[in-house]
Design brief:
Rossmann fold; 2 domains; four-stranded mixed β-sheet; 10 helices; globular; binds N,N-dimethyl-L-histidine
Amino acid sequence: MNESVLKLNTHDPRDDHLLEEILSGLNQEQKELPCKLFYDKKGSELFDKITALPEYYPTRTEIEIIESNIEEISACIGKNSLLVELGSGSSIKIRLLLGGLKEISAYVPLDISYSHLIESTNALSKDFKQIKIIPLCVDYTKPFTFPDFDFEWGKIVVFYPGSTIGNFHPAYARKFLGNVAKRTGKGSGLLIGADLKKDKSVIENAYNDSRGVTAEFNLNILYRLNSEIGFNFDTDKWEHSAVYNEKEGRIEMHLVSLTAQNVSHNGTRIFFEKDESIITEYSYKYSLDEFEDLIKDYYRVQKVWVDSNRRFSLQYLSVI
Ligand code: AVI
């Protein structure tokens, strides 16, 4: 890898008032933990495993959409663009894109997980030697500034695949996408994956896989809280659960307490009743109209690609 293009701000999960966020989440009536806690090295590896599971349709479907429409996608992105990816876990998708794009100015992956970013960037730079790759280790949900690049580019196109936007509450998603639009400017592009509403059983199976990988991914949060933050969760006394809330249009991932128990942190005790749960993640599913409504204050939908089962959408939006 060309170290001269590597500009990193390291991110430590103990920074950024994370502890306050965790404690305040665990003190709410419906306890919750921020889903960004999933993505340490182990969690990122487990997530990669999830994306290959037969039940987890989003990744496979989005890949199919990219493969079948690469020319149109490439035309939307255009020449000489700065391709910025929010998250760098989706290496198969970015490989397909980089392989099919007209000349881009540079590829800038942003990721909160330092190790995942380095691994994926190292692998990519071996196979795409002609492309400038500038990895940035940041929490892209927080304000940040791009370094001064010493080269020219035409427009910024943000690539936000995987329906990660679905992990935000819609009001926050709207605000977040608005901030992305403000940061990238009028005329910039957003190539975004959005999971679609569909049969409840298809969705629930995707988050309750038969091999238990999603359960392991969910429980990994408790291991992290113990080893990195100093909690004392007894991980055998917790169970994964994921249910689709049709009214809200979202999957709700929970960690369910199998018994009445206390958990401590630094002398502070938190009590859990038997069957009480901690919400660890929401994953919202949108209809195409709902999604357009979500982004309409900042973007125009230029192009929507869906798979033949209409399970998933990839959309090219331009900042207005
Ligand atoms: C990253 N995100 C889009 C995934 C999702 O489907 O909401 C995270 C995930 N959680 C459980 N399985 C996958």
